[in-house]
Amino acid sequence: MITKKITLENYNLHVIKLETFKNVMINIRFKNIYEREMIPALDLLSSLLIFTNKRYNKREDFVNKEMDLYDLDVNSSFYSKGNNNFINFSAKMLNEKYTEKGMFWKVLEFLNNIIYEPNITDGKFDSESFNIIKKDIKNDIDTIKENPANYAMIRFYEELDFDGSYLSALSDEYKTLLDGITEENLVDTYNHLINDFDVDIVVIGDVDIDLVTNSIKRYFNFSKRNESSSEMIIYPKVNKPNIVINKEKSLQAKLIIGYTLDKLTSKEYEFVLPLFNIILGGYSNSKFFKNIREKYSLCYSINSNSIGRTNLLIVRSGITKSNYDKVLSCIKKEIKSMKQLDKEDLEDAKKYYKMAINDAFESMSDIVLNYYNHIYYDSHLLEEKLEEIDKVTLKDVENITDKLTVNTIYLYGGDSK
Amino acid sequence: MIKEFELIGTKVEIEKLDNGLTVFFIPFEGRKKYYIEYLTRYGSVVNKFKNINDKKFTIVPFGIAHFLEHKLFEDEKLEPFTFFSKYGTDCNASTSYEYTNYYIKGIYNLKECLDYLIKSVNTPYITDKNVKKERDIIKEELNMYNDDPYTKLSRKSLEAIFKNHNIRVDIGGTTKTIQNITKEDLLKCYNAFYKPENMYLFVSGNFNKEEVLKVLRDNEEIISNKDKNIVEIKKEVEPYDVNIKYQEINLKGLTMPKMLYSFKISLAGYKERDKYMYRHIMKLILFKVFGPSSNFFVEGLKEKRFTDFYYSAYLVDDFLIVELATESDNPKAVIPLIKEYYDKTDIDIIDLKRYVKASIVREINKFDDSERIVDILRYDLLSFNDIFYDRLDMIKNVTTEEVTKIKDNLDFDNVSIIVASPK
């Protein structure tokens, strides 16, 4: 794998050349500081820009064009991470050596239309497209409760919020902000995206680096680069956990426990914490799986994860509500046992971690994700991770236990037989 | 025997062992990981069977195939998950209507991991105590699915489409049926269906073929030491007609009304290759009539008739089920539009060429992934008892006449419609 960073005017291009895949993927990621009130508008914009545009102003024409480009797979997403908002556009195409010469240029031209030729006339977005996307988002919000696990997660974050920065999709405020978006004021959001966000483009596949560089230069340019900061969100340590129990008629209760981690170093975040999570609840040989599920039969699913760019560790499980106290007690016991691990626990976790990293080499999306983390947060590339993980000691992992404090316990549902 | 997928170039080497096990080798150059799947052609729909010489059929509770899947990853001495973790190998298993599979993926110690997988699946450790323990875990799993309104709706739909077929029953059974499952039931089913002639082994990615064959030879005794009796599965005859044509239900957990509109198409008497192409062509028709670039979809969104619309086409024995699904404030109003748009939408040569282009790309992409290629082989074998190595050629050669013929023959009288509202 060869990677090269090319600094262009007000944006960066990163080319990852590797011959493993038949596809080429182009990612255009926009990054800015977190702006809470902008969330509904940015989310709407990200979907609208790949629905229609000026050149393909009918949905059917847009879709047919994707198919004509050999089933080009175009996606967009909006998300918040740490103190940043992101919009990502990606296009996955079959390498033109399997289709026809010039297809890469045609795909770039299509992406150029998406970014620079939105469906705006007379200072407003096309109403038909706008209304369809807006309704779709409203529908997504109205049906959140149909997925109990997702609903519980959003409610958990509402309870966890300590400084009012979290904007819940379930809140009245979100609905008000969404209702307030019009075809006209969304144009301001679009201009904000194009003019104020930092852009990093990543192209991955069996490509010629110089050809890619010249092609990207031809189709993309941006007006400035702010180098917005990328900070973590640090949840405060609390003296007494916030315990919230929401009743709901369902067979299974969703239990979510949020822990804060106190003063971890960057090495601990990047290498020690993943191993801690693997041992505790990250795979089928974890303490949670072996004991809480297999030994005591208290659940089917239970896992622990840390949340990127925060100091949070989260334990999630689906349980029978009447076992709530028992499960809590077991979780506490397993976490306590993390203070005295066997050498084998760590060696097994490291092997699992390395297998997961090697698995990532076979996924374009995983390679790109890792690369963006490297760009924004200076985290290690996949190959480097394989080496660094071996430096983590048993003591490093055990020490994490003392840095954990329960912040919030949330239990949702499980109130019918 | 080496076979090659034409126009894609992917090679598959097939070895049928003397004990009856068929092994598929799919090497990938430049990859680090191996992916191995060990599969039995025994899924949740089987609940009535007998050995060829028995007079009566044995009837077992529903949910056994799934229960067995849980149990075979259990060992008296060393838990499979603990074993595989020594080598950083990921392992898991799953049950479907038609099969149960056990898979491992890793980069280290293929020999040791494969050896353990073979031993684990071929030497069941099932006791009254561990059956009782597993019951509670499975109960939690079933509760998780039963809280999901989409799972419940899908179940209702299958019950409405099929009158007798066991696909009506959830893969995991019910909390009631699993209560009745005993150690003896599990062993009875295990002995009937976990035999080499009923099983496949898929080895994909980075591996040494000779190493794999040696592991299988070393385990020859436990693989082949199985009940040699031929098993006959009793399948209820499924009529052509759908079970329930129309129903309105209230579903707990829904927040927005949904509608499922399903066609039941009989492909009895069709050759396997023709069934494969029938499904492919039907998906083309569905894309043109109901897909994201169709008038139905675009006007539907514009007029706020629905917020989304999905379709799928899947095979159940000799039936092709075509399922249309929508989420809408007024799903009943969508029902008559389905036939209206179906009738007035034509498919011309441009549509066909465009769809063929996209289909070929999608097929090629599947072959880029060492796990997805196993999905392809598995699907072909279980659905058609064959693997179509010339699939791209088949797709390329579809004619507008074939498309028109299939389109015109769709029977709108044999549909099952469910309108589900929030409770």
**How can the largest sheet of chain B be summarized?**
7 strands, mixed
The number of distinct β-strands of chain B equals 15
Taken in chain order, the helices and strands of chain A follow as EEEHHEEHEEHHHHEHEEHHEEHHHHHE
**Strand content bin of chain A:** 15-25%
| Biggest interface, CB < 8 A | A-B, 63 and 65 residues
Account of the 3D structure:
The complex is a heterodimer of chains A (417) and B (423). With 417 residues, chain A is α+β, with helices and mostly antiparallel strands. Helices cover 43% and strands 23% of the residues of chain A. Chain A is built from 15 helices and 13 strands. In chain A, the strands form three sheets. A six-stranded mixed beta sheet of chain A has the order 1-2-8-3-5-4, with helices on both faces. Chain A has a five-stranded mixed beta sheet with strand order 9-13-10-12-11. In chain A, strands 6-7 form a two-stranded antiparallel ribbon. In chain A, helix 9 (266-281) crosses helix 12. Chain A starts with a strand and ends with a strand. Chain B is an alpha+beta fold and 423 residues long. In chain B, the strands form three sheets. Chain B has a seven-stranded mixed beta sheet. Chain B has a five-stranded mixed beta sheet with strand order 11-15-12-14-13, sandwiched between helices. In chain B, strand 2 and strand 3 form a beta hairpin. In chain B, helix 1 (64-71) crosses helix 7 (183-193), helix 3 packs parallel to helix 8 and helix 10 packs across helix 16 (400-408). The radius of gyration of chain B is 23 Å and the shape is globular. At the A-B interface, helix 2, helix 4, helix 10 and helix 12 of A face helix 2, strand 7, helix 4, helix 11 and helix 13 of B.
